[in-house]
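Risk register update: the risk that structure generation would not scale has been downgraded. Supporting records follow, first protein first.
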Amino acid sequence: MKKLSELYSGYPDIEINGIKINSKDCKPGDLFVCVSGVNADRHDYVIDAINHGASAIVASKKIDVDVPVVYVEDTNKELPLLCSKFYDYPETKLELIATTGTNGKTTVASIIQDLMGNDICGYMGTNGIRSSSFNEKIVNTTPDADRLYMYFDRFCKSGCKYLSLEASSEAFYRHRLDNLKFKIGILTNITEDHLNIHKTIENYVSCKQQLFKQVSDDGFSILNIDDKYYESTSKIANGTILTYGKKESDLQIIDFKEYIDKTDITLKYKDNLYNITSPLIGEFNVYNLCGSILALIALDYDINDIIKNVVNINVPSGRCEFLNYGQDYSIILDYAHTTDAFNNLYKLLNNVKKNRIITVTGSAGGREHEKRPLMGKVVLDNSDYVIFTMDDPRWEDVNSIIDDLVSISDKNTYERIVNREEAINKALSIAKKDDIILIAGKGSDKYMAIDDKYLPYSDIEVINRYFDK
């Protein structure tokens, strides 16, 4: 809590309890900041904010209200500076470890917390905010600044020295991470995604690479040397560059052997070989583990101690997660929703499968249509049978989305079941011994986006109900 006069000299000594950018979230004592977004200008919601209790306003346009108004040149740029000051600069009290990439952000950020321990390292990303003191869901992978700095403050107060966070391309596009310096930046991979927001692959790559410009001079840029964009990223990366991958690198992947429930890995570091058994499966998770291990090495952890801790890694919920109900076939829940993610996933499944692969998936509405045909073809080419269904259709017709998914494949080994719960139930009902049932797209999400509503929905709850019958 601060007084408005502490935040802006010359203004009244009224108490400010919080900072808000959503008028409906305002409570008595809040300071409402009129930021501008793609779809809304918060200057239009000032009266609503005041009606909900806002005690003062920060604006960049002239407004006529009966509460104090602080005028600034750009409310979007002002917001993170204001939030930082309000919470006593919590970002400077944390060592920020940020992971970016098309795929693997959640896994890497989670592995780092598991290896370090949630007493000293917090996590923030798709799976919420976690420390030894709290474990909560959040709305965005990388929140807006009003919540971001509030969370920073909570991590500090819970005793965290480090924060492992997912840094999405959209967060850089929306300037949510402006003004931050990162001790460590990690690149997993860059493949085409989110072009509905970024419009071009060049813009998308630029937003991903922005992280490495914000690595501190005494920090580390940890890069996947096998990634297509490694060279261009390395040219703009700040701090010390550390590399991992199959090519000669600081932490080199020498060999790995995949099993249905583990991966045996041989790594090379400083001319020494290290054998690791990881509870994570798939080649993509070998890369994810390497990026995580290098982050700890950069923070002066001993590699032998890190390797001993690998057994403590938890498989992130909804990320190539095996579900066991005593059935004689495998059920895998995964967040895969890009061509690259499916290619990686099927590479693993085809290596370990003993019978059929049956996939349940769809594609989100309101997103780029261009990726759907190739993604659908990859799914059909690698599955013995596919059930196409809804996956956050928003305003789009589900059958039209499925039409896109099947448009360039000549295979007819699929059916359409629009209702996702019915689709999952159908896949489970036709499963035979040693089949693999892959349920992809939603992961551990707790909602289904239909029209402009986020309705309660969970794949795992659907599966639980099926086996509770």
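Supporting record for the second protein:
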Amino acid sequence: MIRTIIRTLLGLFLLLSYSAQAAIYERLDDSASPRANVEAVLVLSESGKLLSESFDAKQAIIKFGRVDYRLATTAYLGKSVRIYYVIPPVIPGLVSKTGVTVEWQARKEFTAGSAHAGERQLVWSGMIQEPWVEESFDLQWTVQLDQIRLGDNQAFGFEAYFEIEVLP
């Protein structure tokens, strides 16, 4: 009986210890970014033709061009942090998380990368020295058309966002 209580307490202690060390991510405010809605500038098929002219296309390659971000970081001044680019886990109309691949090429200090629905990718690590972090991405989505199920008059889209993790 006492052994069971000790094991239970030890397990609870380990769980609480792990929880205290688990990373805490906060969504960064990007409402000061120049473009509230980002729209595609070009939609191609995998053959490089316009999607509207590709009747047997399996993929849509959606190019957004340059997307500017302005992230509010005043609350983190002087702190070491990691900043992540996050693709939401639930995207209306998407059947499989791998049905869309988001790719970006950073124009300033962030790293380039790619991600699927529900993924968080590290794009920057360092000390926050300014109240705003500004970055631009050349943004592209590759959508597997057989992984999309849209209702009548439903458009495919989602909002990727940034999260910050303060380091000890």
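The beta strands are 25-27, 42-45, 59-72, 80-86, 100-106, 113-116, 120-127, 132-144, 161-166. On this basis the risk owner (M.S.) recommends closing the item.
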